[in-house]
Amino acid sequence: MAELNSASDLRFFGTVTSSVSHELKNVLAIVNENAGMIEDLLAFAAQGRAIDPARLLLAAQAIKTQIRRGDAIIKNLNRLAHSVDETAEAIVVDQAIELALGLTARMAAMRGVAVAMVPPAHSVVVRTAPFAFQQLMWRCLDDATACAASLGGAIDITVETVAHGACIRLKGPAGRGPDPLTGQKDQALLDSVGAKAAVDPATGEMIITLNPIKDS
Amino acid sequence: MRVLLVDDEEQLVSTLAERLSLRGIQASWVTSGVAALELVETETFDLAILDVKIPKISGLELKKRLQALHPGMKFIFLTGHGSEDDFKIGVAEAGEDFYLVKPVKIESLLEKMNEAMLQQGKGQ
To answer: What is the pTM of this model?
Structure first.
C-alpha cells in the first residue's frame, strides 16, 4: 500500500472526511425527524385520534431515501480510502471524476454552484496515481466552484481521450482568474498524476491534460 | 410562540416544523438565508432555529442580519458540524445552551426553546 506521508495528503483526507461526516449527520438528522414523526402519529393514534396512513408512508419513504443517500456517501468514502491501495494503476477517468463529484457535492451545494459531467462516448482509461488524482480533482473543483460562486454560473466537465492520455475540461463562467495550480505543492501534485493544467481566462475553462505514469 | 426554522435540508426542516406544529407551536421553515430575510419582511417571529452551515449566507451571518431587523428575536443553532472551532464560534455567538448538535431530541429542543424565550438578551 502506498504510504500516506505528506501533510497535504493528510489535510485532503481530513477535509473530505469532515465534509462526509457533516453530510452523514444531516442524513441521520432527517432519519431522526421522520422516525420521530412516526412516533408522534402513533402516539396520536393511541389517544384515539385519527391519523393519515399516507403521512406515515411519507415518513417511512423519507427514511429509506436517506438510507440510500447515506449508503452512497459511505461508498464514495470507501472508494477514496481504497484509492491509496496502489501507487499507480489504470483508472477509468470518467468514473474517477464521478467519485470526485460525489465527494465535492456538498462543497458545491454550499456555494450554490451546479456541477455536472457530460459522460464521454467511450470510457477513458489512463494509468495514474488514483489518490493523487482525487486530490487534484478536489483542488480543481474547489477553485472552479469558488470562482463560479463569485461570478455566477455552473461548471460543466468533459473528458476525452487524447493521444495516450486524457483531456479534462472544467468549463465555468468567463472572467475567472489565472491558473490557480502554479505553486510548488500544486506542481508536485500535478507531477504525481502525470498532469498539466492551464486556464483559458477568455472562456473560463480549466484544461487538465493527463498522461500515463509509470509505477515508481 | 412563532418560530422560524432555516436549514438547507428541506426534508429535515419541513418535518421538524411539522412536529413542532403538532405540539401547538407556529413554525415556518425556509431552506436558505435569502428566503429567511425575505420572509421576515412580512412576518414576525419570536425565535429562529438556524443551521450553522447553510449555502451562501452562514447561520452566524444570518443571525446578525435577522437581529438587526428584529432585535428581540431569540436564536438557537443546530449543527451537524462537530469541529472544535465551529463549536467555539457558535457558543460565542449563541451561548453554549443554545448550540445543539444534530440529530437532536425534540424534547431537548423544546426545552431549549422555552429557555431561550425566558432569556433576556444573554448570548443573543
So the answer is: 0.88
